[in-house]
Amino acid sequence: MQSLVADDVRAAMAALAREAKADTARYLLVGVGATASIAVQAAQRDRRARLLMLVSPAPSPVDRGVMHATVAELRRPVYFQSAGDDVSTWALIDVLYRACDQSASRVSESEKWGSDATLFRFDPKILVRFKQWLSESWPPPGRRATPPSRPRKG
Predict the structure, then answer these.
(1) Most buried residue among 74, 86, 103, 132 by CB atoms closer than 10 A?
(2) Does the pTM of the predicted model rise above 0.90?
């Protein structure tokens, strides 16, 4: 099931590009709680997922080893968000952080209690920190060649 969901990300991005005319040449992929391992797997399958955000990552124990190996292989920037309720995952976040690109990745902990994406509602500092990391980590767009000018008539 996780593999199918990871494959759906690519299909969803294709639909977004087709229907909304959105630029999907690069994107941020977010995994929350138990879906964190699916987000990592989806990023492995689609190079356009340039950044990862893992909020309160809580993969099942059988997925942790593969998730660790995949994060190490990807070497992409990862933003880890956790809170006081995530005590049981702090050791996992530390292991994953050590495996990823540490120079571009961040671990952000909140003093507030909550879990998953509800943290953004309870602690306004979280969004500020995330936006700062995003501005530092988002890869610059590829340079497009300037089209040649048309010859003048007459």
Answers:
(1) 86
(2) no
